[in-house]
Amino acid sequence: MSALAPTYARFPVEFVSGSGTVLRDASGDEYLDFLSGIAVCALGHCHPAVVRAVQEQAGKLMHVSNLFTNAPMLRLAERLVERSFARNVYFANSGAEANEAAIKLVRKARPRGDIVVVHGAFHGRTYGALSATPQESKQAPFAPLVPGFHAVAPSEVASAVDERTAAVLLEPVQGESGVHPLPPDVLRAARDACDRVGAALVFDEVQCGMGRTGSLWAHEQYGVVPDAMTLAKGLGGGMPIGALLIGERLDGVFAPGDHGSTFAGGPVAAAAANAVLDVVDDPAFLSGVHERGERLAEGLRELPRVTAIRSRGLMVAADVDAGAPDLARRALLEQRLVINATGPATLRLLPPLTVSEAEIDDALGRLAALLA
Q1: Which CATH fold topology does 15-33+284-371 show?
Q2: Domain extents for the chain?
Q3: Which of 178, 194, 211, 345 could disulfide-pair with 280, CB 3.0 to 4.6 Å?
Protein backbone atom coordinates (compact mmCIF):
# COMPACT_ATOMS: atom_id res chain seq x y z
CA MET A 1 0.00 0.00 0.00
CA SER A 2 1.35 3.41 -0.95
CA ALA A 3 1.77 6.11 1.65
CA LEU A 4 0.45 8.56 -0.97
CA ALA A 5 -3.25 9.39 -1.14
CA PRO A 6 -4.72 7.87 -4.33
CA THR A 7 -5.54 11.17 -6.02
CA TYR A 8 -3.50 10.41 -9.15
CA ALA A 9 -3.33 7.41 -11.47
CA ARG A 10 0.45 7.50 -11.55
CA PHE A 11 2.61 5.79 -14.16
CA PRO A 12 5.00 3.11 -12.83
CA VAL A 13 8.13 5.23 -13.32
CA GLU A 14 10.21 7.10 -10.74
CA PHE A 15 12.23 9.97 -12.18
CA VAL A 16 15.37 10.94 -10.29
CA SER A 17 17.09 13.55 -12.47
CA GLY A 18 16.67 15.63 -15.58
CA SER A 19 18.50 17.97 -17.91
CA GLY A 20 16.87 20.00 -20.65
CA THR A 21 14.37 17.76 -22.44
CA VAL A 22 15.77 14.54 -20.93
CA LEU A 23 14.53 12.75 -17.81
CA ARG A 24 16.25 9.79 -16.11
CA ASP A 25 14.53 7.13 -14.04
CA ALA A 26 15.76 5.19 -11.04
CA SER A 27 17.21 2.50 -13.35
CA GLY A 28 19.21 5.03 -15.34
CA ASP A 29 17.01 4.89 -18.46
CA GLU A 30 16.58 8.17 -20.35
CA TYR A 31 13.25 9.58 -21.54
CA LEU A 32 12.39 12.41 -23.91
CA ASP A 33 10.07 14.73 -21.99
CA PHE A 34 7.35 16.25 -24.15
CA LEU A 35 5.09 17.18 -21.22
CA SER A 36 7.53 19.28 -19.12
CA GLY A 37 5.68 18.69 -15.87
CA ILE A 38 2.40 19.76 -17.56
CA ALA A 39 3.88 22.97 -18.99
CA VAL A 40 5.72 23.85 -15.78
CA CYS A 41 9.37 23.29 -16.77
CA ALA A 42 9.26 25.97 -19.46
CA LEU A 43 13.04 26.01 -19.88
CA GLY A 44 13.43 22.27 -19.47
CA HIS A 45 14.80 20.45 -16.46
CA CYS A 46 17.49 22.07 -14.32
CA HIS A 47 18.08 25.03 -16.62
CA PRO A 48 21.38 26.54 -15.43
CA ALA A 49 19.95 30.05 -14.98
CA VAL A 50 17.02 28.79 -12.90
CA VAL A 51 19.21 26.49 -10.81
CA ARG A 52 21.68 29.31 -10.19
CA ALA A 53 18.92 31.74 -9.18
CA VAL A 54 17.39 29.23 -6.76
CA GLN A 55 20.72 28.27 -5.20
CA GLU A 56 21.86 31.84 -4.75
CA GLN A 57 18.58 32.98 -3.26
CA ALA A 58 18.24 29.94 -0.98
CA GLY A 59 21.65 30.79 0.45
CA LYS A 60 20.51 34.32 1.28
CA LEU A 61 16.84 34.26 2.25
CA MET A 62 14.17 31.59 1.82
CA HIS A 63 11.07 32.99 3.53
CA VAL A 64 9.85 36.08 5.39
CA SER A 65 6.03 35.95 4.84
CA ASN A 66 3.90 38.64 3.25
CA LEU A 67 4.10 40.86 6.32
CA PHE A 68 7.26 42.11 4.60
CA THR A 69 8.51 42.58 1.06
CA ASN A 70 11.48 40.88 -0.54
CA ALA A 71 13.59 42.01 -3.49
CA PRO A 72 12.89 39.11 -5.94
CA MET A 73 9.13 39.47 -5.41
CA LEU A 74 9.19 43.23 -5.98
CA ARG A 75 11.35 42.88 -9.08
CA LEU A 76 9.09 40.20 -10.54
CA ALA A 77 5.95 42.25 -9.90
CA GLU A 78 7.48 45.31 -11.55
CA ARG A 79 8.50 43.29 -14.61
CA LEU A 80 5.08 41.68 -15.00
CA VAL A 81 3.42 45.09 -14.79
CA GLU A 82 5.87 46.53 -17.31
CA ARG A 83 5.23 43.68 -19.78
CA SER A 84 1.45 43.62 -19.55
CA PHE A 85 -1.73 45.64 -19.10
CA ALA A 86 -1.51 45.27 -15.31
CA ARG A 87 -1.34 47.96 -12.65
CA ASN A 88 -0.33 45.56 -9.89
CA VAL A 89 0.16 41.88 -9.10
CA TYR A 90 -1.04 39.49 -6.39
CA PHE A 91 1.19 36.43 -6.00
CA ALA A 92 -0.08 32.91 -5.26
CA ASN A 93 1.42 29.41 -5.18
CA SER A 94 -0.47 27.77 -8.05
CA GLY A 95 -2.89 28.36 -10.89
CA ALA A 96 -5.91 27.30 -8.83
CA GLU A 97 -4.94 29.77 -6.11
CA ALA A 98 -4.47 32.54 -8.65
CA ASN A 99 -7.96 31.81 -9.99
CA GLU A 100 -9.40 31.81 -6.47
CA ALA A 101 -7.94 35.28 -6.00
CA ALA A 102 -9.43 36.40 -9.32
CA ILE A 103 -12.87 35.11 -8.30
CA LYS A 104 -12.71 37.01 -5.01
CA LEU A 105 -11.51 40.13 -6.81
CA VAL A 106 -14.37 40.28 -9.31
CA ARG A 107 -16.95 39.34 -6.67
CA LYS A 108 -15.81 42.20 -4.44
CA ALA A 109 -15.91 44.57 -7.41
CA ARG A 110 -19.52 43.56 -8.15
CA PRO A 111 -21.02 41.84 -5.09
CA ARG A 112 -23.24 38.83 -5.75
CA GLY A 113 -22.55 39.08 -9.46
CA ASP A 114 -22.47 35.98 -11.64
CA ILE A 115 -19.32 34.76 -13.37
CA VAL A 116 -19.72 33.48 -16.92
CA VAL A 117 -17.51 30.52 -17.89
CA VAL A 118 -17.48 28.25 -20.93
CA HIS A 119 -17.89 24.53 -21.39
CA GLY A 120 -14.59 22.69 -21.73
CA ALA A 121 -12.84 25.05 -19.33
CA PHE A 122 -10.53 23.98 -16.52
CA HIS A 123 -9.62 26.50 -13.83
CA GLY A 124 -8.49 24.28 -10.96
CA ARG A 125 -9.63 21.88 -8.24
CA THR A 126 -10.09 24.14 -5.19
CA TYR A 127 -13.71 25.00 -4.50
CA GLY A 128 -14.04 28.30 -6.32
CA ALA A 129 -11.88 27.21 -9.23
CA LEU A 130 -13.71 23.87 -9.41
CA SER A 131 -17.05 25.68 -9.45
CA ALA A 132 -15.76 27.59 -12.48
CA THR A 133 -14.86 24.30 -14.20
CA PRO A 134 -18.05 23.00 -15.84
CA GLN A 135 -17.09 19.34 -16.07
CA GLU A 136 -19.58 16.98 -14.42
CA SER A 137 -17.08 14.24 -13.63
CA LYS A 138 -14.90 16.67 -11.66
CA GLN A 139 -17.70 18.60 -9.95
CA ALA A 140 -20.31 15.95 -9.05
CA PRO A 141 -18.49 14.21 -6.16
CA PHE A 142 -17.99 17.53 -4.36
CA ALA A 143 -21.39 19.20 -4.57
CA PRO A 144 -22.72 21.57 -3.42
CA LEU A 145 -20.32 23.94 -5.13
CA VAL A 146 -19.88 27.70 -4.93
CA PRO A 147 -22.98 29.29 -6.51
CA GLY A 148 -23.08 32.02 -9.11
CA PHE A 149 -21.24 30.45 -12.05
CA HIS A 150 -23.01 30.41 -15.40
CA ALA A 151 -21.59 27.94 -17.95
CA VAL A 152 -22.34 28.46 -21.64
CA ALA A 153 -21.00 27.46 -25.02
CA PRO A 154 -18.25 29.80 -26.30
CA SER A 155 -20.58 31.21 -28.94
CA GLU A 156 -23.08 32.18 -26.21
CA VAL A 157 -20.73 34.19 -24.00
CA ALA A 158 -21.78 37.65 -25.17
CA SER A 159 -25.49 36.92 -24.84
CA ALA A 160 -24.96 35.54 -21.31
CA VAL A 161 -23.50 38.82 -20.04
CA ASP A 162 -25.88 41.30 -18.42
CA GLU A 163 -25.99 43.88 -15.61
CA ARG A 164 -25.78 41.10 -13.00
CA THR A 165 -22.52 39.74 -14.43
CA ALA A 166 -19.41 40.29 -12.33
CA ALA A 167 -16.99 38.80 -14.85
CA VAL A 168 -16.33 36.52 -17.77
CA LEU A 169 -13.55 34.02 -17.06
CA LEU A 170 -11.93 32.38 -20.10
CA GLU A 171 -8.84 30.44 -21.15
CA PRO A 172 -7.73 31.90 -24.53
CA VAL A 173 -6.50 28.37 -25.24
CA GLN A 174 -8.22 25.62 -23.26
CA GLY A 175 -5.51 23.22 -22.16
CA GLU A 176 -6.88 20.39 -20.04
CA SER A 177 -9.74 19.65 -22.43
CA GLY A 178 -7.29 19.08 -25.30
CA VAL A 179 -5.75 22.34 -26.59
CA HIS A 180 -8.80 24.16 -27.92
CA PRO A 181 -8.01 27.77 -28.90
CA LEU A 182 -11.12 29.89 -28.47
CA PRO A 183 -12.13 31.66 -31.70
CA PRO A 184 -10.95 35.30 -31.82
CA ASP A 185 -14.51 36.55 -32.27
CA VAL A 186 -15.48 34.92 -28.95
CA LEU A 187 -12.82 36.87 -27.08
CA ARG A 188 -13.71 40.10 -28.87
CA ALA A 189 -17.42 39.60 -28.18
CA ALA A 190 -16.66 38.91 -24.51
CA ARG A 191 -14.62 42.11 -24.31
CA ASP A 192 -17.40 44.16 -25.89
CA ALA A 193 -20.07 42.62 -23.67
CA CYS A 194 -18.08 43.24 -20.49
CA ASP A 195 -17.47 46.86 -21.51
CA ARG A 196 -21.16 47.32 -22.20
CA VAL A 197 -22.24 46.39 -18.67
CA GLY A 198 -19.13 47.22 -16.65
CA ALA A 199 -18.15 43.62 -15.96
CA ALA A 200 -14.55 42.37 -15.83
CA LEU A 201 -12.91 40.16 -18.44
CA VAL A 202 -10.47 37.69 -16.86
CA PHE A 203 -8.12 35.48 -18.86
CA ASP A 204 -6.77 32.27 -17.34
CA GLU A 205 -3.32 31.92 -18.91
CA VAL A 206 -2.05 29.43 -16.35
CA GLN A 207 -1.15 26.95 -19.10
CA CYS A 208 -1.09 29.06 -22.25
CA GLY A 209 0.87 32.01 -20.83
CA MET A 210 4.62 32.59 -20.36
CA GLY A 211 5.56 32.08 -23.99
CA ARG A 212 3.86 28.70 -24.46
CA THR A 213 1.94 29.85 -27.55
CA GLY A 214 4.80 31.79 -29.17
CA SER A 215 3.96 35.16 -27.61
CA LEU A 216 4.58 36.11 -24.00
CA TRP A 217 0.83 36.12 -23.35
CA ALA A 218 -1.59 34.11 -25.48
CA HIS A 219 -4.09 36.98 -25.65
CA GLU A 220 -1.55 39.12 -27.51
CA GLN A 221 -2.29 37.02 -30.61
CA TYR A 222 -5.98 37.93 -30.34
CA GLY A 223 -5.62 41.68 -29.89
CA VAL A 224 -7.96 41.54 -26.88
CA VAL A 225 -6.82 42.94 -23.52
CA PRO A 226 -8.36 41.57 -20.30
CA ASP A 227 -8.97 43.34 -17.00
CA ALA A 228 -7.15 40.61 -15.08
CA MET A 229 -5.07 37.55 -15.92
CA THR A 230 -3.94 34.51 -13.97
CA LEU A 231 -0.56 32.84 -14.40
CA ALA A 232 1.31 29.88 -12.91
CA LYS A 233 2.91 26.71 -14.34
CA GLY A 234 5.73 27.96 -16.60
CA LEU A 235 6.17 31.17 -14.59
CA GLY A 236 8.39 29.46 -12.03
CA GLY A 237 10.22 27.08 -14.35
CA GLY A 238 9.68 24.25 -11.84
CA MET A 239 9.15 26.23 -8.65
CA PRO A 240 5.58 26.69 -7.36
CA ILE A 241 4.33 30.21 -8.05
CA GLY A 242 1.18 31.77 -9.45
CA ALA A 243 0.12 35.33 -10.09
CA LEU A 244 -2.99 37.44 -10.58
CA LEU A 245 -2.32 40.46 -12.78
CA ILE A 246 -4.79 43.26 -12.07
CA GLY A 247 -5.59 45.94 -14.64
CA GLU A 248 -7.09 49.42 -14.43
CA ARG A 249 -10.77 48.43 -14.09
CA LEU A 250 -10.07 46.34 -10.97
CA ASP A 251 -7.24 48.42 -9.54
CA GLY A 252 -7.97 49.38 -5.94
CA VAL A 253 -10.62 46.70 -5.35
CA PHE A 254 -8.49 44.62 -2.99
CA ALA A 255 -7.66 46.17 0.38
CA PRO A 256 -5.41 44.89 3.19
CA GLY A 257 -6.94 41.77 4.70
CA ASP A 258 -9.05 40.85 1.65
CA HIS A 259 -6.80 37.99 0.56
CA GLY A 260 -3.44 36.49 1.37
CA SER A 261 -1.10 33.52 1.45
CA THR A 262 1.72 32.54 3.78
CA PHE A 263 4.11 31.32 1.11
CA ALA A 264 3.09 33.31 -1.99
CA GLY A 265 5.71 35.46 -3.65
CA GLY A 266 8.47 33.93 -1.56
CA PRO A 267 12.01 34.96 -2.51
CA VAL A 268 13.16 31.58 -3.88
CA ALA A 269 10.17 31.03 -6.17
CA ALA A 270 10.25 34.67 -7.29
CA ALA A 271 13.97 34.44 -8.05
CA ALA A 272 13.29 31.39 -10.23
CA ALA A 273 10.50 33.24 -12.05
CA ASN A 274 12.77 36.18 -12.73
CA ALA A 275 15.30 33.80 -14.27
CA VAL A 276 12.60 32.27 -16.49
CA LEU A 277 11.42 35.70 -17.58
CA ASP A 278 15.00 36.67 -18.48
CA VAL A 279 15.00 33.91 -21.11
CA VAL A 280 11.39 33.83 -22.31
CA ASP A 281 10.77 37.55 -22.67
CA ASP A 282 12.78 37.85 -25.85
CA PRO A 283 11.32 38.26 -29.37
CA ALA A 284 13.85 35.91 -30.96
CA PHE A 285 13.16 33.21 -28.37
CA LEU A 286 9.39 33.53 -28.81
CA SER A 287 9.74 33.39 -32.58
CA GLY A 288 11.63 30.13 -32.15
CA VAL A 289 8.82 28.74 -30.01
CA HIS A 290 6.36 29.51 -32.80
CA GLU A 291 8.59 27.96 -35.48
CA ARG A 292 9.31 24.77 -33.52
CA GLY A 293 5.63 24.47 -32.68
CA GLU A 294 4.82 24.53 -36.38
CA ARG A 295 7.45 21.85 -37.01
CA LEU A 296 5.92 19.63 -34.33
CA ALA A 297 2.34 20.16 -35.54
CA GLU A 298 3.23 19.51 -39.17
CA GLY A 299 5.12 16.36 -38.27
CA LEU A 300 2.20 15.04 -36.25
CA ARG A 301 -0.16 15.56 -39.20
CA GLU A 302 1.88 13.04 -41.20
CA LEU A 303 1.60 10.24 -38.64
CA PRO A 304 -0.76 7.26 -39.01
CA ARG A 305 -3.92 7.19 -36.87
CA VAL A 306 -3.80 10.98 -36.31
CA THR A 307 -7.15 12.51 -37.28
CA ALA A 308 -6.71 16.16 -36.26
CA ILE A 309 -4.15 18.60 -34.86
CA ARG A 310 -4.75 21.69 -32.70
CA SER A 311 -1.86 23.90 -31.72
CA ARG A 312 -0.62 27.28 -30.62
CA GLY A 313 3.15 27.42 -30.43
CA LEU A 314 4.41 24.50 -28.35
CA MET A 315 0.96 23.74 -26.96
CA VAL A 316 -0.13 20.88 -29.21
CA ALA A 317 -2.87 18.23 -29.25
CA ALA A 318 -3.19 15.30 -31.63
CA ASP A 319 -6.52 13.52 -31.95
CA VAL A 320 -6.13 9.81 -32.71
CA ASP A 321 -8.62 7.21 -33.89
CA ALA A 322 -8.91 5.59 -30.43
CA GLY A 323 -7.15 4.63 -27.22
CA ALA A 324 -5.20 7.81 -26.35
CA PRO A 325 -4.63 6.90 -22.66
CA ASP A 326 -3.16 3.51 -23.65
CA LEU A 327 -1.01 5.17 -26.31
CA ALA A 328 0.35 7.65 -23.77
CA ARG A 329 1.22 4.82 -21.41
CA ARG A 330 2.87 2.81 -24.17
CA ALA A 331 4.78 5.89 -25.35
CA LEU A 332 6.27 6.13 -21.86
CA LEU A 333 7.05 2.46 -21.33
CA GLU A 334 7.96 1.38 -24.87
CA GLN A 335 9.33 4.52 -26.51
CA ARG A 336 10.63 6.40 -23.44
CA LEU A 337 8.57 9.41 -24.55
CA VAL A 338 6.65 11.44 -21.96
CA ILE A 339 3.28 12.75 -23.18
CA ASN A 340 -0.24 12.48 -21.80
CA ALA A 341 -3.85 11.99 -22.84
CA THR A 342 -6.52 14.59 -22.12
CA GLY A 343 -9.36 12.31 -23.15
CA PRO A 344 -10.12 9.00 -24.85
CA ALA A 345 -8.91 10.21 -28.26
CA THR A 346 -6.52 13.12 -27.58
CA LEU A 347 -2.77 13.15 -26.96
CA ARG A 348 -1.23 16.35 -25.57
CA LEU A 349 2.36 17.48 -26.15
CA LEU A 350 3.86 20.33 -24.10
CA PRO A 351 7.64 20.10 -24.58
CA PRO A 352 9.99 22.59 -22.96
CA LEU A 353 10.11 25.87 -24.84
CA THR A 354 13.83 25.19 -25.27
CA VAL A 355 13.25 21.94 -27.20
CA SER A 356 15.44 21.58 -30.29
CA GLU A 357 14.42 20.68 -33.83
CA ALA A 358 16.39 17.43 -33.50
CA GLU A 359 14.47 16.53 -30.34
CA ILE A 360 11.18 17.26 -32.10
CA ASP A 361 12.17 14.97 -34.95
CA ASP A 362 13.23 12.32 -32.42
CA ALA A 363 9.85 12.51 -30.66
CA LEU A 364 8.02 12.27 -34.00
CA GLY A 365 10.02 9.17 -34.85
CA ARG A 366 9.14 7.52 -31.55
CA LEU A 367 5.46 8.35 -32.04
CA ALA A 368 5.57 7.02 -35.60
CA ALA A 369 6.93 3.70 -34.33
CA LEU A 370 4.24 3.56 -31.69
CA LEU A 371 1.35 4.46 -33.98
CA ALA A 372 2.49 2.12 -36.74
Answers
A1: Aspartate Aminotransferase, domain 1 (3.90.1150)
A2: 15-33+284-371, 49-280
A3: 211
What CA–CA distance (Å, rounded) separates 229 from 191?
14
CATH of 49-280, one of 3.90.550.10, 3.40.640.10, 3.40.47.10, 3.40.50.720: 3.40.640.10
The 10 Å Cβ neighbour count of residue 197 is 14
What confidence score (pLDDT) does residue 61 get? 98
- Give every residue of the chain whose pLDDT is below 70, as ranges: none
Question: How much is the pLDDT for 107?
Answer: 98
Distance of CA 127 to the CA centre of its chain: 18
Pairing mode, strands 337-338 and 30-33: parallel
Reported residue count of the chain is 372
Q: Are 90 and 244 in contact (CB under 8 A)?
A: yes
Instruction: Report pLDDT digits (tens) over 28-48.
Output: 999 999 999 999 999 999 999
Q: 138 φ, ψ to 5°?
A: -85, -35
| pTM to 2 decimal places | 0.97
H or E stretch covering 308: strand 306-312
CA nearest to 29, candidates 337, 238, 327: 337
